[in-house]
């Protein structure tokens, strides 16, 4: 316990890094995933902006990238990282990779939830003279918002999990802290406290997600 | 209201015109057979009328109504709405035309994520109407359909009839000149159906909106429509005033449909029972909208000394005119009964002999 106290500043910094990684990844990946999900939904044959070529291309891209385990994805996209953010290690690199990875997972969640929206409602919006893009943004997203928030919450938990794995690559954050200051020094209290911290973050996120979803569903 | 005014006595202005319209859906999958939904449909709907389209499910009614607001495009022929040839317009221009056409649906299709007021406001937002004006119009529309006090509720808290009234308010938001009702009362109980139809009649009468009603329920047509078209297996088999089509269907398909609705002709089972208890000839006469029709009928029977007993049928009212049929058991000398039938027919009365005997014998009873 004594040793943990001396590591307190590092622990605080680790929490800050985890929050940075997770929040940026969920927001950036969330927006990109939303866009991809909307494209998948809208271009699907028979839908609002049916476009076979675009649908097939995005569909294949998502199917190829999504099954890649995150730690492998992280190393596989290093060339891309070098070109875009100029580094392949550290917190920024991990955040970049995590954002991309989350985006592909979210695209499917968004697509699935949009598909559950009653086609009759879309027809009503078309009959009112709305444009396809307008229908996507002002009808489909609001109608699917409740389940979509739960989907985002699920992804948030997965991102916290993956951000800890990224600690193996020197990405910073609580995973890194638990490995470097905990398990590698056989300092188990550090490991347990870190685990407890992650559990608290996940619980808080889940609670917030449930609360927002309930408000959106008005139940 | 953006209703085209017309001088009294002027010929009715055509609002919707179909010219040899056909619609074929491509088959599902690579080898699926294409589905012919509509074939060679030509019809005209006048401005300000309530036009009904009836047919069994699968007859193509829903496809037909979606051609009017361009949610579907025909594979052949032309669809005109007002001055526009929808088939020649781009999707962007069709969207503009749609804002002058309201639509209501069987399952209401309200936005669950919006309040009642939000649902009604949606078409106004789409049309770019600004806030204060939008709020004013939403309040006026909700007042019109009697739901002003539910403005801030979400649709799931409303009954079916209330939901459809919100649907109507939403459809009327942009002050359209044409309203399409796709099985709008089919999900409602009879009492609520009556309320919704009364509202539709008010929309037609007070606001001058042309209404096209798609339904499989004849009572809806009977109580609401001015003219009706009968759709059978993708073809238009009959078009005319509701009275003419119901009282005197010209085609077999229309007769079948109307017969099931009026239930004024005895069924084969009923006929068999009647024949067991009645020895005379069973004849069904279609009631005509003429002064003293029944009196003349009775006099014809008397003149030929034929006894006539009413064994089936009834008379009701359609568009404020009598409609129905009466089945008589005619007894008397055979030649006299024949003479009665000849006299009625020469008088222009529709007479149907309910006598398809297994082996008809023209000399029977002579």
UniProtKB/TrEMBL annotation, chain A:
InterPro entries in alphabetical order: AA_ABC_Transporter_Permease, MetI-like, MetI-like_sf
Pfam families given in the database record: BPD_transp_1 (PF00528)
Membrane topology: Multi-pass membrane protein
Location(s), subcellular: Cell membrane
Keywords for this protein: Cell membrane, Membrane, Transmembrane, Transmembrane helix, Transport
CDD domains on file: TM_PBP2
Residues annotated as transmembrane: 20-41, 53-74, 80-106, 190-213
Family label: Belongs to the binding-protein-dependent transport system permease family.
Name recorded for this polypeptide: ABC transporter permease subunit
Species annotation: Actinacidiphila acididurans
Automatic annotation (TrEMBL), chain B:
PROSITE patterns: ABC_TRANSPORTER_1 (PS00211), ABC_TRANSPORTER_2 (PS50893)
SUPFAM superfamilies membership: ACT-like (SSF55021), P-loop containing nucleoside triphosphate hydrolases (SSF52540)
Alphabetical keyword list: Amino-acid transport, ATP-binding, Cell membrane, Membrane, Nucleotide-binding, Translocase, Transport
Stored InterPro entries: AAA+_ATPase, ABC_transporter-like_ATP-bd, ABC_transporter-like_CS, ACT-like_dom_sf, MetN_ABC, MetN_ABC_transporter-like, NIL_domain, P-loop_NTPase
CDD domains (alphabetical): ABC_MetN_methionine_transporter
Molecular function via GO: ATP binding
Residue ranges occupied by any ABC transporter domain in the UniProt entry: 16-258
One Pfam family cited in the UniProt record for this chain: ABC_tran
Protein name: Methionine ABC transporter ATP-binding protein
Organism (species): Actinacidiphila acididurans
Classification of source organism: Bacteria, Bacillati, Actinomycetota, Actinomycetes, Kitasatosporales
Classification via PANTHER family: AMINO ACID IMPORT ATP-BINDING PROTEIN (PTHR43166), METHIONINE IMPORT ATP-BINDING PROTEIN METN (PTHR43166:SF30)
Presence of keyword GTP-binding: no
Coiled coil, from the record: none
């Amino acid at each position: 316990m004594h040793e943990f106290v001396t590591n307190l500043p590092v622990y605080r910094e680790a929490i800050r890094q985890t929050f940075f990684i997770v929040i940026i990844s969920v927001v950036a990946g969330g927006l990109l995933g939303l866009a991809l999900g909307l494209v998948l939904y809208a271009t699907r044959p028979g839908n609002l902006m049916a476009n076979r070529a675009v649908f097939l291309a995005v569909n294949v891209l998502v199917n190829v990238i999504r099954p890649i385990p995150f730690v492998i994805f992280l190393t596989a996209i290093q060339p891309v990282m070098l070109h875009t953010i100029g580094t392949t290690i550290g917190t920024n690199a991990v955040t970049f990779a995590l954002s991309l990875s989350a985006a592909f997972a979210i695209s499917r969640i968004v697509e699935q939830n949009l598909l559950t929206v009653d086609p009759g409602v879309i027809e009503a919006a078309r009959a009112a003279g709305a444009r396809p893009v307008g229908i996507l943004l002002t009808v489909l997203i609001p109608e699917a918002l409740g389940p979509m928030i739960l989907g985002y919450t699920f992804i948030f938990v997965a991102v916290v999990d993956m951000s800890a794995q990224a600690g193996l690559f020197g990405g910073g954050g609580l995973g890194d802290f638990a490995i470097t200051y905990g398990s590698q020094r056989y300092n188990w209290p550090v490991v347990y406290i870190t685990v407890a911290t992650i559990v608290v973050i996940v619980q808080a996120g889940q609670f917030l997600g449930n609360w927002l979803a309930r408000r959106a569903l008005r139940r | 209201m953006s209703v085209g005014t017309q001088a009294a006595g002027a010929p009715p202005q055509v609002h919707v015109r179909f010219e040899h319209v056909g619609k074929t859906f491509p088959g599902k999958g690579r080898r699926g057979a294409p589905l012919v939904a509509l074939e060679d449909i030509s019809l005209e709907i006048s401005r300000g009328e309530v036009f009904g389209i009836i047919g069994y499910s699968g007859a193509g009614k829903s496809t037909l109504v979606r051609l009017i607001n361009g949610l579907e495009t025909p594979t052949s022929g032309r669809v005109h709405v007002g001055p526009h040839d929808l088939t020649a317009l781009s999707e962007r221009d069709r969207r503009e035309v749609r804002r002058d056409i309201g639509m209501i649906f069987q399952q209401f299709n309200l936005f669950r994520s919006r309040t009642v007021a939000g649902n009604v406001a949606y078409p106004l937002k789409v049309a770019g109407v600004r806030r204060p004006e939008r709020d004013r119009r939403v309040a006026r529309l909700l007042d019109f359909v009697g739901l002003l006090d539910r403005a801030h509720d979400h649709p799931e808290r409303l009954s079916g009839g209330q939901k459809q009234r919100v649907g109507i308010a939403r459809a009327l938001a942009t002050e359209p000149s044409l309203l399409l009702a796709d099985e709008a009362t089919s999900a409602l109980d009879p009492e609520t159906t009556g309320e919704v139809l009364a509202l539709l009649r008010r929309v037609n009468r007070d606001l001058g909106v042309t209404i096209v009603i798609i339904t499989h329920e004849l009572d809806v047509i009977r109580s609401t429509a001015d003219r009706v078209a009968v759709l059978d297996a993708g073809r238009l088999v009959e078009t005319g005033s509701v009275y003419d089509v119901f009282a005197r269907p010209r085609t077999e398909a229309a007769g079948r449909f109307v017969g099931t609705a009026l239930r004024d002709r005895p069924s084969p089972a009923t006929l068999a029972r009647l024949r067991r208890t009645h020895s005379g000839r069973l004849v069904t006469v279609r009631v005509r909208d003429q002064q003293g029709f029944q009196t003349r009928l009775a006099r014809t029977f008397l003149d030929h000394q034929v006894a006539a007993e009413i064994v089936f049928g009834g008379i009701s009212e359609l568009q404020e005119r009598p409609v129905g049929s009466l089945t008589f058991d005619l007894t008397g000398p055979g030649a006299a009964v024949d003479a009665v039938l000849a006299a009625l027919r020469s008088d222009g009365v529709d007479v149907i002999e309910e006598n398809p005997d297994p082996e008809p014998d023209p000399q029977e009873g002579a």
